[in-house]
């Protein structure tokens, strides 16, 4: 077993089930907000997911920032319902969603214990594709802030590159003064959290609860279903 000094985590759907919080937050907002309250909740949710997935590709390619992504996602979703909206209205919807989504983020004792044990042996950090405004609230609500001090939380919005762009990993390594061989990267997205880090010279563990098939030839150190299983992977 290779000796690592540092474990870098993805955040969403790695340290907590973001997908469920996203859905709860969106469902509440669609039901409540005047832009969508009279529409079919599931149909709007599906449209937001579909347009969001399409737009995410442009975000990763740095065509849109996160504010534009959120505005365009709602504009395009509502265009499917013959409804055109102003940017301010989209921002208001986003604000309500963000609040509801963050309210749905809850601490998980098993994850907290696992992170606590890992923190006694490794330096821990986070590298997340996302806007700066929500990551720290998520960590606080998860009860994990103490394990991930601000200087070890790397946000793609601030760095200017998104995973799997090698430049985000190189920037993180430089900031932490680390060689790639010292780092184990852990996350749920094959391209962003496994293929990218391995290309950058790190090792990776794939969190794959749904049994997805690997998209490239890269070889992770292990494939696990939940983050707490990482304790077995790095067992001495
Ligand atoms: Mg993720």
From TrEMBL:
> InterPro entries, alphabetically?
HAD-like_sf, HAD-SF_hydro_IA, HAD_sf, Pyrimidine_5'-ntase_YjjG
- PANTHER family per the UniProt record, alphabetical: PTHR47478, PYRIMIDINE 5'-NUCLEOTIDASE YJJG
Q: What is this protein called?
A: HAD family hydrolase
**Which NCBIfam families does its entry note?**
HAD-SF-IA-v1, HAD-SF-IA-v3
- Gene Ontology MF terms in the entry: hydrolase activity
Transmembrane annotation, as ranges:
none
Q: Which Gene3D superfamilies match?
A: HAD superfamily/HAD-like, Haloacid dehalogenase hydrolase-like domain
Q: Which domain of life is it from?
A: Bacteria
Q: Which UniProt keywords apply?
A: Hydrolase
